[in-house]
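As a warm-up, study this chain.
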Amino acid sequence: MELSALLFQDEYTSLYRARDIEITSICQRGDQITPGCLFICIQGTRYDSHILLRAAQAGGAAAALIEEGVRCEVPEGFPVFSVPSTRRAMALAYNRLHHSPASGMHLIAVTGTNGKTSTATMIYTILCAHGLRAAVIGTVACRSETKNYGKRGSEKKHAMTTPDPDVLYPMLAEMRRDGIEYVVMETSSHALALEKLAPLHFDVALFTNLSPEHLDFHGTMKNYLAAKARLFSQCDCGILNFDSEYAEELARAATCRVLRCGAVYHEQYNAEEIRMLGAAGVAYTYATPRVRMGVSLPIPGAFTVYNSLLALTCALQLGIPPLTAKEALQRMSGVPGRLERLPLPEGHPFSVFIDYAHTEAALRNLLTTVRQFRRGGERIVLVFGCGGDRDAGKRAPMGKTAEELADFIIITSDNSRTEEPTKIIHDILRGMHRPEKRRVIVNRRRAIHYAIHTAKENDIILLVGKGHEDYEFTESGEQPFHEKSIVWEALATPPTAKESYEDPT
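Now compare it with the structure written out below.
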């Protein structure tokens, strides 16, 4: 294939001509270099592959893309092409390599700090209920009704909320070959900031909410919001939760048509007469300029109201009958790892829930929801930690929220990565001031065992932070870690001696 099919003449500066160079593949890592490849240099936060130009030439690469303004040593006689952004060029190249796979399909994007997975799953469920061939790409799964697209690994590129271009565009091409008509995609701020989605245009884009998260990457909330705002210049219609304080600013920056949703403040599309039904879920009246109908979902929590309000509004914009959408949501049993109740064998007089909440706002929403549906005398026992090599600024606020809203807290590890787990835990403890309400057990497996073995009658045990994940990532690397299996393991084994739970923290 000629390089000119992937890199157009007005997109680069070079002494060479793209049409004179044949390439066999695209790569962006040193271990991917093969004869005839196009090597794309990426300047990351920790590593800059511009230093690999000689290695690329020695490995037989046909050419390389470098980023304007990045100082690097170019080997003599090696064709390099300078572009304003190699990340954007990479997304465009993979899209062109796979013949613009999203063309002819309808794309729906969901962005926001919390609620992306649930909202995307609701939209996907409605599409399938209407008989449309749909797929979803997101944190929990990339799938259609009949097929899984790619393994959802842990720290690997295909485990990201929005996959990298070398995974995303081949996946879209496979979906198109399978006859998929609609793709619902969770869209992260990282993906938008790094221009992974630059070639794509969405029919509808939805905004759930915004709270402090990923500030280790974005630096400020202003930058975080600006990343989200990019999406609303790549779509025909934006559906925004206007109960979020940032929605108005997003709407002003948007170049698309904007629809306003609300539950507290009445907008164009509203959730009215809201009823919290405890563990049985929620019910409300969905009110729009043309539709008014009762809606109920068996998923508890105020966030369910917002997520379903956005999903219903999206369905109407896609031409799906309101009753079809309503009935699809009423049949939903939940989303894996999102306030997911585990079925326990008879004889265990407590309950166990698993949830993905890993921000202060998500943890507050979760604990508030559980407090709403618990009955008198039920303790909320929270097992949680914070991820390593991620925004440390959220750790103390999460500790404060846990102490405020849970009855007993077991602080533990959660994907510590290259950080020392005890250091992360100390950061959490800075937000806590009541030692009698907490216990530190660094090892997460033992923390879960402790919660199960010391549970009192009617306790509500919340295992929080990992949700759908089935791995634990530490300095030693990735290890299998399936919380449901660990719960069954704890239920099947006798309590361990008290001293074995002690940690030196």
